Amino acid sequence: MTTYIDPFVDFSFKRLFATDESKPILIGFLNSIFKGRKYITAIQYGKNEYHGEHIDEGGVVFDITCTDVDGSKFIIEIQRGYQKNFKERALFYTSRAISEQAPRGGRKDWAYNLTEVYLVAFLEDFNLPDSPRSEYVQDICLANRYTGKIFYDKLGFVFIEMLNFVKKQNELDKELDKWLYALKHLTEFNKRPEYLSGPEFDQLFNLAKYANLTKEEREMYNASLKYKWDNKNVMDYAKAEGKARGIAEGKAEGKAEGKAEGRAEGLLEGERKKAVEMALKLKAKNIRVDEISELTELSIEEIEVL
């Protein structure tokens, strides 16, 4: 077992960024992203679920949502693998965060005075299809296609592509670089390095220390870590199987990918069964339903009927 927990599993991410103890960490991290444009002094955590328009549409649960003292809303999440229509999904749910600002009455007086909405997404094991591999942060807003001038600056998307972040210790020339280096290499450290100094980093390493977890928290972390590994194994196997089958059969690339996706869907169904088994074990230990949902990615409704 490493000295520090993996920050890119659900339990750890919320421990490090979504608790009262971790507010200084999140503020420091967000300020390193928006340096020069915003300076955040305080945040308040908000609801992290956005419901669908219709009862049968469902919704989405983000890892973290918070609001600063100026009313700016931040949606922060991890994406471990590429999802179909990923960009559309990001746009849809940030738009939902905007539309929910409309009051039920008095819209004339409100006059569409919108507050800012930002999505900050860690892309752990994949890249955006059209992004340059030399860049690890994609900072996107609405701009004029011809002049490049910003058209609207109250809606923004920050995609952090961890695969592209390959800087070494002596190349950390920005505060954001230090944050990303700390997060990417956290499980490799035996103690906090001196070059990652400051109260926010002190708090990060304190909360991330495995020895500081309670027995219940260790069980939750280990379950969350196992779930991440199982999912990765499924996708790695599906990719390898699809590639091997495509070569063996001499099929076209598109058809081979279709077979791989079908196999992946079947394997992911098996992973859902594992998630149910894990949920049953956690329920037996009287872990809260919402925490089980975060660890297993099953809905609260699914868990309650188990």
TrEMBL record:
Pfam families: PDDEXK_2
NCBIfam families hit by this protein: T_den_put_tspse
PANTHER family referenced in this protein's UniProt entry, alphabetically: PD-(D_E)XK NUCLEASE FAMILY TRANSPOSASE (PTHR41317)
Name the UniProt record assigns to this protein: Rpn family recombination-promoting nuclease/putative transposase
Organism: Pedobacter nyackensis
Record lineage: Bacteria, Pseudomonadati, Bacteroidota, Sphingobacteriia, Sphingobacteriales
